[in-house]
Amino acid sequence: MEEPTKTKKSPARLLMWGAIGVVALIALVYGGILFYVNVINDSPDKLDESDLSAAVAATTLPTTEPTTGNSGTEPPAATDPATTGPATTDVPGADPTAGFDGDWSPTNGSEFGYRVEEVLAGVNTTAVGRSSDIEGLLTIDGTTATAVEIEVQ
Q1: What CA–CA distance (Å, rounded) separates 53 from 41?
Q2: CA–CA separation, 90 vs 64, rounded Å?
Q3: Do residues 126 and 113 lie in contact, with contact meaning Cβ atoms separated by under 8 Å?
Q4: How far is residue 42's CA from residue 130's CA, in Å, rounded to a whole number?
Q5: Which of 4, 34, 59, 127 qualifies as a cystine partner to 116, CB 3.0-4.6 A?
Q6: Beta pairing partners, 134
Q7: Domain residue limits, the chain
């Protein structure tokens, strides 16, 4: 009986399979990046005026009827029509001629967001971040921000 001969793999054949493996690995890496950027990376919508309107509506205090002290079983006291006029509500610090001068700090309902265009392994993408854990101070004088200190967690 003859012994089976072992076939030697030629170096050219090993080199070819090695090159195919490297090309396949690079294709998998770039395919994974493209899949992440276009499918998995679902960034939130940009903040716009509707988000601001919703935040203002959520933080606006509800209007209440003034209480007169009666229990609701007695008719309201008659008032002199000559002295009754439209009610004005002066809110301290709400002078429309005062502008925006002063110190401003974020409230509990504040939200910070950013978008940064970046290139990730040759693929254009947008990095997005948001947080409502904000501390800081903004000082405005006229139309100039004179000091800004913001810390976002």
Answers
A1: 27
A2: 16
A3: no
A4: 13
A5: 127
A6: 152
A7: 10-42, 45-58+96-153
In the block, residue with structure tokens 């254009």:
124
d(CA 61, CA 76): 26
Q: What single letter denotes the amino acid at residue 63?
A: T
Query: Which residue's structure tokens are 């001629």?
Result: 97
Q: What is the pLDDT of residue 84?
A: 45
Q: Average pLDDT for consecutive 10-residue bins of the chain (153 residues)?
A: 66 91 95 82 70 64 52 54 46 56 81 82 80 84 86 78
| Amino acid, single-letter form, for residue 144 | T
Report the distance separating Cα 138 and Cα 110, nearest Å. Answer: 14
73 vs 76: CA distance, rounded Å: 9
Q: With contact defined as beta carbons under 8 Å apart, do 82 and 93 qualify?
A: no
Rounded to whole angstroms, the Cα distance separating 147 from 143 reads: 12
